[in-house]
Design goal:
Blueprint lengths: L1 H14 L4 H32 L1 E5 L7 E5 L3 H7 L2 H34 L2 H16 L2 H12 L5 H8 L12 H25 L4 H9 L4 H12 L1 H16 L3 H6 L12 H10 L4 H31 L1
Antiparallel strand pairs: 1-2
Helix pairs in contact: 2-14, 3-14, 4-8, 4-11, 5-8, 9-10, 11-14, 13-14
Length: 310
């Protein structure tokens, strides 16, 4: 018995040694921080360093190439490039169309799911989430087929009804891309908002019904304000994802001349890196996009936090 008591006391002493918990946590966090530094921090630092230099050739361009420090010269060149600025204009219009359309669609579908009968919920959840399971490249290829005149059953059906429409025209190619993105990401955001709706206290909803509130008023006046934090998260992810627009225009560029190789900033950076072999300017464009994403993330976070505290 005395041996057991002594062993128990020694174990207690070992557990109470200060600093052991912190060291154990640090050991388990080392793999994460190592991977984070290698895959996130190092590429960003390398891109920043690369953007500060430029390759130059003497004479008429036939001399040996030298790498010179140009400071913010690449950033100024990128920001003064007309194609890059026009791409930002298209991206801004895309965001104005895509962000509210996606969030409103996801919110309405989530509210409908929350009001649906129990046995139909899982079927609807699966149907809504299936498009998100399709890779972005495959989704863009599917819709490129559905948009292309001559092969698209949708275009043929509309033509049979007397409606001639070209989804890949200069006027409609941007809304067509918005449709692809909404189709692909609506289900993902529906799941986020629907999960938040499940945490709404049922007694609050019962009290609203007792006060005479109908289903529509309950949905938008009671449920929606209570899931605002989840809606803010969806807004943040959607804004960041909008700035990464690349797959849809890249795929559709092979089906229409309305989409050029520099149609959006990400395509401009891709063209600079792999077609014009100007890696420093591509790095500068990437850093500019990263800074813009960080600024917008901060603005969205501030906006959602203020609305939450009202």
């Amino acid at each position: 018995m005395s041996l057991q008591i002594r062993s128990g006391r020694s174990a207690t002493r070992r557990r109470s040694i200060p600093g052991t918990g912190g060291r154990s946590a640090a050991i388990f966090l080392i793999p994460f921080f190592t991977l984070f530094a290698v895959t996130m921090i190092a590429p960003v630092v390398y891109a920043i360093g690369l953007s500060l230099f430029a390759e130059k050739r003497s004479g008429l361009g036939f001399g040996d190439a030298t790498v010179d420090f140009v400071g913010i010269g690449n950033y100024l060149a990128v920001l003064s490039d007309r194609a890059f600025l026009e791409g930002f204009g298209r991206l801004a219009i895309y965001c104005l169309l895509y962000v509210p359309t996606l969030l409103i669609t996801a919110l309405v579908l989530a509210l409908l799911l929350d009001a649906a009968v129990t046995y139909a919920r899982r079927a609807f959840q699966l149907l809504l989430f299936l498009p998100h399971a399709v890779p972005g490249v495959i989704a863009a290829l599917i819709w490129a087929y559905l948009y292309t005149p001559g092969v698209s059953p949708i275009v043929k059906a509309l033509a049979a009804g007397g409606i001639e429409i070209d989804f890949l025209s200069v006027q409609l190619v941007l809304p067509s891309m918005v449709n692809i993105a909404v189709w692909e990401w609506a289900g993902y955001n529906v799941i986020i908002l629907f999960t938040a709706l499940q945490t709404v206290p049922r007694e609050v909803l019962e009290a609203a019904r007792v006060d005479g509130a109908g289903e529509i008023r309950t949905a938008f006046s009671i449920k929606t304000p209570l899931v605002w934090p989840a809606l803010g998260v969806a807004l943040l992810f959607t804004v960041i994802g909008s700035l990464q627009l690349f797959t849809e225009p890249k795929i559709l560029s092979s089906a229409t001349t309305a989409v050029t190789s520099t149609w959006v900033p990400n395509m401009w950076a891709y063209d600079a890196a792999f077609n014009r072999n100007n890696l420093p300017q591509a790095a500068a464009a990437s850093i500019i996009l990263a800074l813009l994403a960080g600024l917008l993330s901060w603005a969205v976070t501030r906006f959602t936090s203020k609305e939450r505290t009202r």
